[in-house]
Amino acid sequence: MNESINRLKLVRQRIESACIAAGRKPEEVSLLAVGKRHPSEKMSTLHELGVKRFGENQLQEARQKQKELAHLAIQWHFIGAMQSNKTRPIAEHFHWVQSVDRKKILTRLSQQRPDGLEPLNICLQVNIDREPQKAGVDPEDILQLASYSSGLDNIKLRGLMAIPMVTTDLNQQHDSFRRVRVLFETLRNEGYDLDTLSMGMSSDLETAIAEGSTMVRIGTDLFGKRA
C-alpha cells in the first residue's frame, strides 16, 4: 500500500506541476492508470486511493481483471489495437475505446453496443508521426473518420488519442503533441463537441500537458516495472 501511495502521490505532483507551468488547472487533466501485465490487486489498491479510470490494451487480460474487480466502480478504457473479430466483447464491456482508427471498427462497435448501455465513448487514434509499426489513422484522414462516426447511433466521439514517436528531444516531443492538438482544435472548429485529448505517458506527460493534453495514460510510474 505504501508503495502505491508514494507512486500515486508523485504522479499527481507531476501532473499538478506541469499544469501550473502551463498556466492550466490540475483538474483539467485526468489520470488513466494503465494496468498492462500488472495484477488486479494493484489496481484495487489504486482504486481505494481514488483512481477510477483504468486502461487495458489486451482483451483477454482485461476481461479477467474486469471479472476480478467487478465489485468496484471502475471506468474501463480499451487502449490497444483491435482486430475486427474482437469488437463485440469490447463494445459490451468497456466504457471507452481510445484506439479506433478505421471505419470498419467504428461500425462494428456501434452495431455491437448492447441496448440499454450508454453510447460507447470513442477517441480516434492518430498516427501523428506516421510510424509504420504503430496503429492510427493518418493526420489528413482524421476529418473523414470523424465525419463517419457522426452517423453512428451507439458511439459518442469524445476526442483524439496519440502515441507520438519516442524521443528525448523536447523540441520533437512538443512538435508532435502540438500537431495532435491542432487536429483536435480543427475538429472542434468543424463543430465536433470534443473534450478529450489523450496523450502523454510516464516519460513525457509534462510535454503533453504543456501542449493541451486532457488525459495522461500512466503505467510504469504508477505500478512499477511490468512483469
Explain how this protein is built:
- With 227 residues, the protein is an alpha/beta fold.
- Helix 6 (142-149) links the parallel strand 5 (120-126) and strand 6.
- Helices cover 41% and strands 18% of the residues.
- The protein starts with a helix and ends with a helix.
- The chain has a single domain (2-223), classed as TIM Barrel, CATH 3.20.20.
- The protein has helices at 2-21, 40-48, 59-68, 87-93, 103-112, 142-149, 170-189, 205-210, 220-223, and strands spanning 30-34, 53-56, 75-78, 96-100, 120-126, 155-162, 196-198, 215-218.
- An 8-stranded parallel β-sheet has the order 7-6-5-4-3-2-1-8.
- The protein is globular and about 45 Å long.
- It has 9 helices and 8 strands.
How big a fraction of the residues is strand?
A: 15-25%
Shape: globular
Question: Average pLDDT value?
Answer: 96
Helix content: 40-55%
Uncertain spans: none
The CA-CA distance between the termini, in Å, is: 19 Å
Q: Give the count of structural domains.
A: 1
Number of helices: 9
**CATH fold descriptor:** TIM Barrel
